[in-house]
Amino acid sequence: MALPLTSDQPDRSVEPEARAMAREFILARMGSLLALLPLGAWTAVHLWNQLAAYDSPEAWQRAVTWHSSSASTALSFIFVLVPLVWHTGWGAVRMLRSRPVVRIGWLSNVRYIVQRLSAIGLLFFLGAHLYLAWFEPRFMRGHAEYFADIAREMRFHTPTLIVYALGVLGISYHLANGLWAWSMAWGVTVSKSGLAWMERVALLLFFLFLALGWLAIYGLYRNG
Ligand code: HEM
Predict the structure, then answer these.
(1) Fold annotation for 30-222
(2) pLDDT band at 149, cuts 50/70/90?
(3) Is ligand 1 within 6 A of the CB of residue 145?
């Protein structure tokens, strides 16, 4: 007999395969939702905060590395890194399982491939960025990254400048094109005109992110 839905027991009237499919569906949906919220929104705020470099070193320090308490440090860590790890695992599984579809046109396939290439690039960029800008200063040197240090690296260590410029390019593409794919996967855009509009929004978002990130890099570079 089927158990009432209020029970915490699994509903045995549903076949195990159907339950597994439902579980996979929800996990896949979570992987794509977390990429947008909080990750995408947090990245926009993170890049925006870097613009404080145009004000003063103190303003940058407050905007980028300051937390009101150790609880808020831990919370923002959970808020950002857990979704990042989840989305990375979800993306890696999808990348291994899926292939481009030949019949949908070369441009869609190019975008599909660049989405995956940018994901691989971001894996390296974020690994290096998190280690050098966050983990090493905070946990090995006992303080958050100093403005003077990151600005000097940007100005005098060309590989750092290039890696940040490419990292921002990668994240801008990955987020903007990801939003377009997300809107289809979630049924936000279904009609042809809806898709065309979403393409324009994604393109605009790409240039906005790129401008924001490159301006932020320049703000640090000029203070180096
Ligand atoms: C102009 C480019 C960027 C600069 C100058 C920059 C700088 C920094 C700095 C200084 C930190 C350490 C903050 C702290 O100790 O509280 C940090 C952390 C972090 N950054 Fe960036 N960043 C940039 C771009 C990005 C991008 C494109 C991403 C992509 C998602 C990103 C993801 C992260 C993450 C996940 C953390 C760890 C945050 C935490 O857990 O509190 N950053 N960044």
Answers:
(1) 3 helical TM bundles of succinate and fumarate reductases (1.20.1300)
(2) very high
(3) yes
How would residue 16 be classed by pLDDT, with cut points 50, 70 and 90?
confident
The answer to whether 88 and 123 have CB atoms below 8 angstroms apart is yes
- Judged by DSSP in three states, 81 sits in helix
Please state, as a whole number, how many other Cβ atoms lie within 10 Å of the Cβ of residue 103.
6
The C-alpha atoms of residue 30 and residue 46 are separated, in whole angstroms, by: 22
pLDDT tens sequence across 82-124: 999 999 999 999 999 887 766 667 888 899 999 999 999 999 9
Which SS3 state, helix, strand or coil, does residue 224 take? coil
DSSP 37: I
Closest ligand 1 atom to Cα of 164: 2
Question: Residue 203 carries which side chain, given as an amino acid letter?
Answer: L
Alpha-carbon span 22 to 116, nearest angstrom: 26
